[in-house]
Design brief:
With 296 residues, the chain is of the alpha/beta class. The chain is built from 13 helices and 8 strands. An 8-stranded parallel barrel has the order 1-2-3-4-5-6-7-8, surrounded by 7 helices. Strand 6, helix 7 and strand 7 form a beta-alpha-beta unit.
Length: 296
């Protein structure tokens, strides 16, 4: 899993005004990320509005991204849910030939116990032909995967190779890093937590911000992984306001606004999500102009 060290991008799914997928814009987003030096692409995650995509659309997105990447960098596909058997069926029925790993979010709404979470991921690992990355995001699932549960999975399941940690709990994250096997990676799932997680021994980030600013995110992460924390911190602070605006009215509404301001895609989301307010969009436009000016 050394291939998944560094900066991963939780890519958006651009839509046209009629809410159909804008594949031309998706191509621009992917090429922008690759040219910015990111290490891998994560498709069909939360940021991709995957819960609003049909099975056929998900397959089309994976195929399209794989075609653009041509194996240059790894591709991770989000395949998760709150019905274990349905997740397994999705894994079996999805063409994973050009997919390097699966990102599987913790079951939401059901609020399973730690035993239930343990059994859920063990079942997925048993049937997955690709390595599995656990995705812990209690702010969305109302279900925290404890450090003990993550460590048990890390030690007992060879096919579970990493966790994307979005709990925001640095104590929990450090406990996982302390107790994990060497072959298991801890990846920050929050842009704002990237530096603390890497400093504690994490492997990088699956970033939302990197959709818009892949070169800056890649540079910051690479410096941090080399323990050049002064330079990494300067970059993190430079983009601090951008990160705050990303989540001011929820993800992916924030990053869609940024990508629209960068003329990468339309500012279109599928219901029940809606674009950010005019006031927030104006702030995002201003930040984009300032950051682009500083790059020049």
């Amino acid at each position: 899993m050394k291939k998944l060290k560094g900066t991963g991008v939780a890519v958006i799914t651009p839509f046209k005004n009629d809410s159909s997928i804008d594949f031309a814009a998706l191509g621009r987003v992917i090429n922008h990320a690759v040219e910015g030096g990111v290490d891998y692409i994560v498709a069909l995650g939360t940021t991709a509005e995957s819960v609003t995509l049909t099975k056929d659309e998900k397959s089309a997105v994976i195929s399209y991204i794989a075609e653009i990447l041509e194996g240059k960098i790894p591709l991770v596909a989000g395949l998760g849910g709150n019905n274990t058997q349905e997740v397994i069926a999705s894994i079996r029925n999805t063409d994973l030939e050009n997919v390097d790993a699966i990102l599987s979010v913790a079951p939401y709404y059901n609020k399973p116990s730690q035993k239930g979470l343990l059994m859920h991921y063990k079942a997925i690992a048993t049937y997955s032909p690709r390595p599995v990355i656990i995705y812990n995001v209690p702010g969305r699932t109302s279900c925290n995967i404890s450090a003990d549960t993550t460590l048990e999975l890390a030690h007992e399941c060879d096919n579970i190779v990493a966790v994307k940690e979005s709990s925001g709990d640095i104590s929990q994250i450090m406990k996982i890093i302390k107790g994990k096997p060497d072959s298991f990676s801890v990846i920050s799932g929050d842009d704002i937590m990237t530096l603390p997680v890497i400093a504690a021994g994490g492997a990088g980030v699956i970033s939302v911000l990197a959709n818009a600013f892949p070169a800056a995110c890649s540079s910051m992460v690479n410096h941090a992984l080399k323990s050049n924390f002064k330079t990494a911190r300067e970059l993190q602070l430079k983009y601090l306001e951008a990160v705050e605006l990303l989540f001011a009215e929820g993800n992916p509404a924030g990053i869609k606004a940024f990508m629209s301001a960068l003329n990468m895609c339309g500012n279109v989301l599928r219901l029940p999500l809606a674009p950010v307010s005019r006031s927030t969009y104006t702030k995002i436009q201003k930040v984009v102009e300032e950051l682009q000016g500083s790059i020049r």
